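Progress note, sequence design subtask.
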């Protein structure tokens, strides 16, 4: 029997990431080739944004996607999130050259308070929320705190682009295929303080640190390169990453919904206090996914170098949280 359609809300639907994302969701790449979807798209209440959204919806129509069971375009979060089973919160101001992601904090915080409240009031109770808009971890925290009647674990932030960047850079260094790499971890904040940790990583079954055998490269080149990749893309394109960000969003939601078959992936999730990360901080950790749920990998040894790195990125998240404390009341 055909599956019933699920409702997928996407904010910032007429933006660059939206344009690289919606067509892939509608073609079944995110939730499966047998899963019909209704797209509920939110854009700013401005003539230009609404016109652009209309154009995107016309193009979606012109694709005649068999799985696209309906579309809603709106400027009202309560319409976009009504009964939504999935929400991809992309809409926010992106940074430009010379800015850090936390420079966007106050500007984007208000958006995530309003949207968290709307999710709280109208979304499906088991909604899966992915925050892409920067600063993604703290925006996810703000939305979670603004939605007290939804389970906290429903709120996640996107660290998958960082995870994929970490895989790719390691594949290039070792000359091995990306899919031979397992157990990559990117701890912490989606910011240059993130900590790509390859201590548990294997490449075609071999321990990555031994195979790479170049600790100086790992510490002085690899870690900063992964952390600063977003800025390098902005420098090169004059615009922030879009296709790779949309691809990571698809990966994140697909894995959460359909499972990872035991494979580790990185998700920004509310902390349960493990690894010395205070409760509720949205922090990148390794997880596996099965049956529509993620489960953090527990019991990993944290050595002195890792502790320092993990605390550094945690401190930045604490500062970001302090910055928005007054707004959260
Ligand atoms: N987490 C990550 O890995 C990652 C990667 C890339 C980009 N990003 C972030 O994603 C966000 C979007 O990037 P983009 O390149 O698509 O930007 P963009 O400017 O091209 O598009 C953003 C869209 O959001 C809309 N928008 C703004 N405020 C909104 C609101 N309150 N409600 C609904 N829509 C709203 C804008 O009208 C615009 O169309 C930025 O914050 C960017 O920094 C995150
Ligand atoms: O770096 C940015 O501002 C965009 C995005 O977060 C990225 O990592 O590419």
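Output:
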């Amino acid at each position: 029997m055909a599956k019933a359609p699920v409702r997928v809300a996407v904010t910032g639907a007429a933006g660059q990431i939206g344009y690289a994302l919606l067509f892939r969701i509608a073609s079944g790449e995110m939730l499966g080739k047998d899963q019909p979807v209704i797209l509920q798209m939110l854009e700013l209440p401005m003539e230009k944004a609404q016109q652009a959204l209309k154009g995107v919806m016309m193009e979606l129509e012109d694709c005649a996607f068999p799985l696209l069971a309906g579309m809603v375009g709106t400027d009202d979060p309560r319409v976009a999130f009504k009964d939504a089973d999935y929400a991809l919160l992309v809409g926010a101001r992106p940074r430009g050259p010379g800015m850090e992601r936390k420079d966007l904090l106050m500007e984007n915080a208000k958006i995530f308070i309003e949207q968290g409240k709307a999710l709280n009031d109208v979304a499906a109770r088991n909604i899966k929320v992915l925050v892409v808009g920067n600063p993604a971890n703290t925006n996810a925290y703000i939305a979670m705190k603004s939605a007290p009647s939804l389970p906290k674990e429903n709120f996640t932030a996107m660290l998958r682009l960082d995870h994929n960047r970490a895989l790719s850079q390691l594949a290039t260094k070792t000359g091995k295929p990306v899919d031979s790499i397992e157990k990559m971890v990117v701890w912490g904040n989606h910011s240059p303080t993130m900590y790509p940790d390859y201590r548990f990583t294997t490449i075609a079954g071999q321990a990555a640190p031994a195979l790479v055998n170049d600790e100086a490269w790992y510490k002085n080149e690899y870690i900063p390169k992964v952390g600063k990749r977003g800025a390098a893309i902005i420098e090169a394109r004059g615009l922030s990453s879009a296709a790779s960000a949309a691809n990571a969003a698809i990966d994140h939601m697909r894995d959460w919904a359909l499972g990872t078959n035991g494979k580790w992936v990185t998700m920004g999730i509310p902390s349960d206090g493990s690894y010395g990360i205070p409760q509720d901080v949205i922090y990148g950790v390794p997880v596996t996914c099965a049956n529509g749920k993620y489960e953090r990998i527990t019991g990993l040894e944290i050595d002195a170098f890792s502790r320092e790195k993990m605390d550094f990125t945690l401190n930045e998240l604490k500062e970001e949280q302090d910055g928005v404390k007054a707004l959260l009341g």
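The first strand starts at residue 6 and ends at 11. Work on this subtask will continue into the next period as scheduled.
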